[in-house]
């Protein structure tokens, strides 16, 4: 018998939602998931939890598939709208439900006869990783925890283990055979007749999104090389499945850009952040009603901050729209960072970084380890280590923006004169070393848009780890007989390309408007 405490409108919605999933009406499922769930939440459960599974099960005849999906939505709502009400029991229940849901999908010889919208499938993978990340932050803050909470943590030692997260993501990748499919089709057309799982939309999408989820996890663990390697099958220079889900698109480019930045591939990081920020500026009206809206806005702010840091360190030309936004948001900080202010750079970097997690599981029976965690949070230690490494890199370059500003004013200048002009006085020998440092720090791997597939130099832009050693400075110089000879290598702006690109954009806008009218 259904619970009478559930409003009639909610009962009707749940039964209709269940029926559309049962009948595999994908368009209607998407409508219920994207709009219906949000409207009911705003009306009845804005600050409270949805009805429990025990209350809902009779409404859907105890349908196992729907119950697992409903529980995922139930716990996700708690984390999103009622975070203060989350208990350790909720955290345990959510993890157990994900395990049950994933095992239900994976432990089969034939694909489950179920199809869900790509947005929902991405949200499942995204939320799974988010809750694991959130639990890592929660479990390492021992102050204020009750004895009951500590006992729960002790008795559930493998709860939200990062190893379990990686295991399930890899399981979806393997089950869907998505890597072979992407390599075979070039990452665009994902149809393959290799296996029933590879052709099934549900498993294919979950495998694809799991690759991007794995990238996120590896960045949180500070393994930037592996983060870029795992998305190698996904060509970033072509439209793929990730472009069909806004949150997925943003996640992929944020973590790709961050990995590039921490690997000192500043040019690629700038291109990546500038690309996604320009995209976000164009479609911001489409995600204002998303439950992830606040997270998307914060992610945008983080990327603008990181882009300001990168442009201050490695000046590059970017789209005028993004350049204007940067000046409006971070003009003062950019001026300070261009003068070598490491403190401002560290502040910006901390704001723009994700919340790192430690891969080391906590032994709750080890009193010494618990005391160490209480005094030194391992997640904060992971953040400090990343900041220290990157800030050391910036300290090595602290004089370079100032030297660059002077070199741009001359075609020749003596080392002694340049040493005299610098605010931070250095001797001529030290300045000669700094000039060598300048040439070294302004060279690195970068995508080459003209690279052909299979290029031995690794310049294929489809491969995230590919690239070619190149100089990304807008000036070139050499030292001879105590004199610095400078030439401006700044490429003139190609107005023809700019005109054609914007004409094509206008055509796309007109085409989209025509489709909406029809």
Number of beta-strand segments: 5
Question: What level of helicity do the residues show?
Answer: 55-70%
User: Percent of residues in beta strands?
Assistant: under 5%
How far apart are the termini?
A: 46 Å
Shape: globular
Pairing-aware structural class of the strands and helices?
mainly alpha
Strand order of the largest sheet: 1-5-4
**What is the count of DSSP helices, taking H or I runs of 4+ residues?**
23
Largest sheet: 3 strands, antiparallel
Overall average residue pLDDT: 85
Taken in chain order, the helices and strands follow as HHHHHHHHHHHHHHHHHHHHEHHEEEEH
Q: What layout of secondary structure does this protein have?
A:
Elements: H1 8-22, H2 26-44, H3 53-56, H4 64-81, H5 88-106, H6 118-139, H7 147-155, H8 162-176, H9 178-185, H10 196-199, H11 201-220, H12 224-230, H13 246-262, H14 266-283, H15 293-313, H16 320-338, H17 342-352, H18 367-375, H19 378-396, H20 400-407, E1 412-414, H21 415-421, H22 428-441, E2 443-446, E3 468-471, E4 475-480, E5 483-488, H23 495-517
Antiparallel strand pairs: 1-5, 2-3, 4-5
């Amino acid at each position: 018998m259904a619970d009478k405490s559930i409003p009639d409108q909610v009962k009707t919605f749940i039964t209709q939602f269940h029926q559309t999933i049962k009948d595999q009406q994908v368009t209607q499922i998407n409508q219920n998931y994207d709009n219906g769930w949000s409207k009911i939440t705003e009306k009845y459960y804005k600050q409270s939890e949805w009805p429990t599974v025990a209350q809902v099960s009779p409404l859907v005849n105890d349908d196992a598939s729907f119950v697992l999906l409903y529980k995922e939505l139930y716990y996700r709502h708690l984390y999103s709208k009622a975070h203060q009400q989350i208990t350790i029991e909720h955290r345990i229940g959510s993890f157990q439900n994900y395990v049950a849901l994933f095992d239900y999908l994976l432990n089969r010889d034939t694909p489950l006869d179920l199809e869900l919208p790509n947005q929902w499938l991405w949200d499942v993978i995204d939320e799974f990783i988010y809750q694991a990340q959130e639990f890592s932050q929660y479990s390492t803050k021992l102050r204020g925890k009750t004895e009951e909470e500590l006992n729960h943590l002790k008795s559930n030692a493998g709860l939200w283990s990062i190893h379990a997260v990686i295991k399930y993501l890899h399981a979806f990748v393997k089950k869907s055979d998505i890597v072979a499919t992407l390599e075979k089709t070039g990452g665009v057309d994902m149809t393959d007749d290799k296996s029933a799982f590879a052709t099934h939309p549900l498993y294919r999408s979950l495998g694809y999104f799991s690759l991007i989820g794995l990238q996120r996890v590896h960045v949180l663990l500070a393994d930037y090389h592996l983060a870029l390697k795992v998305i190698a099958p996904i060509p970033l220079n072509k439209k793929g499945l990730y472009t069909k889900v806004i949150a997925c698109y943003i996640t992929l480019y944020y973590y790709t850009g961050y990995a590039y930045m921490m690997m000192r591939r500043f040019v690629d990081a700038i291109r990546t952040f500038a690309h996604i920020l320009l995209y976000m500026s164009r479609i911001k009206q489409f995600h204002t009603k998303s439950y992830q809206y606040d997270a998307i806005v914060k992610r945008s702010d983080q990327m603008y901050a990181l882009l300001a840091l990168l442009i201050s360190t490695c000046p590059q030309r970017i789209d005028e729209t993004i350049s204007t936004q940067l000046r409006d948001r971070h003009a003062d900080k950019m001026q300070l960072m261009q003068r070598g202010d490491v403190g401002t750079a560290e502040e910006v970097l901390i704001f723009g970084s994700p919340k790192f997690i430690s891969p080391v599981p906590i032994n709750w029976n080890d009193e010494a380890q618990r005391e160490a965690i209480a005094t030194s949070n391992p997640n904060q230690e992971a953040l400090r280590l990343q900041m220290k490494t990157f800030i050391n890199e910036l300290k090595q370059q602290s004089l370079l923006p100032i030297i660059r500003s002077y070199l741009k004013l001359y075609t020749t200048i003596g080392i002694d004169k340049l040493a005299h002009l610098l605010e931070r006085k250095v001797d001529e020998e030290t300045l000669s070393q700094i000039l060598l440092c300048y040439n070294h720090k302004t060279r690195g791997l970068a995508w080459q848009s003209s690279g052909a597939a299979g290029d031995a130099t690794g310049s294929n832009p489809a491969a995230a780890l590919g690239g070619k050693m190149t100089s990304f400075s807008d000036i070139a110089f050499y030292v001879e007989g105590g004199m610095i000879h400078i030439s401006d290598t700044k490429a003139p702006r190609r107005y023809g390309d700019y005109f054609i690109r914007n004409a094509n954009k206008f055509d796309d806008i007109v085409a989209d408007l025509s489709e909406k009218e029809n």
